[in-house]
Design a protein that fits this description.
Layout lengths: L12 H13 L7 E5 L7 H17 L6 E5 L8 H4 L6 E8 L2 E10 L7 H7 L4 H16 L2 H11 L6 H5 L5 H12 L7 H16 L3
Parallel strand pairs: 1-2
Antiparallel strand pairs: 3-4
Helix pairs in contact: 4-5
Length: 211
């Protein structure tokens, strides 16, 4: 399952992915089955992790519709969500390493995975051996830098997203209510990228003038 560029509309893979995900989130029901595959892959690592994390939180915390969700991802940082949210459970497809090769066992097991085996897959696809060896060297150097893990540690201490305002009926400020009404009235499936940017800029100006 995955998105691709929509050249006729000038939409990048990431824009298509976000549009489809927005349509899902805006039309949830208690009977929904949500299938998400590699959300956030079409942008930078930090942007992608942030969007995937926030989407998972949103689905978990929705005040009305607890949709059953299957969320496939290679962002191992999202394993942390299972520790913070009671309805989130991690599973992985088991793999056995034999020397420098891997064997896909095709078994779904509880718990998150700490590896993606992307370089092994590239090797299986026929990438030049010298390139694969170089990729291993680069990966080892990157794994020495735990900066992304440090960010995940900070996320543990960050206030959790919630729907307290919606649940307890707190009054929404007039300016925010106006923006919310405009967002609710939007049909994201009919907006071109330029129209979406113009609308976003308009809403940003509305908020900027009041807050």
């Amino acid at each position: 399952v995955g998105a691709s560029d929509n050249l006729s509309k000038g939409e990048s893979t990431f824009m298509v992915e976000m549009t489809e995900t927005a349509a899902i989130l805006n039309n949830l029901s208690s009977r929904s089955l949500v299938l998400l595959d590699e959300i956030g892959r079409g942008t930078s690592t930090y942007d992608g992790v942030s969007m995937a994390w926030a989407i998972a939180e949103h689905l978990h915390n929705h005040p009305k519709n607890s949709a059953k969700t299957l969320f496939a991802t290679h962002y191992h940082e999202l394993n942390q969500l299972a520790e913070d949210f009671p309805r989130i459970k991690n599973y992985h497809v088991s793999v056995k390493e034999v020397g420098n090769k891997i064997v896909f066992l095709r078994k779904l097991l509880p718990g998150g995975s700490a590896h993606s085996f992307g370089i092994h897959v590239a090797q299986m696809a026929g990438m030049p051996n010298s390139l694969v060896l170089r990729a291993h060297e680069i990966l080892q150097n990157l794994e020495k830098d735990h900066s992304l893990d440090d960010h995940v540690e900070r996320l543990k201490d960050m206030p959790k997203a919630n729907f307290q305002m919606s649940l307890f009926g707190a009054e929404i400020p007039e300016g925010l209510q106006k923006v919310q009404d405009q967002l609710n009235a939007l049909d994201v499936n009919t907006l071109s990228p330029i129209e979406a940017l113009l609308k976003l800029n308009e809403l940003k100006r509305t908020l900027g003038n009041r807050y």
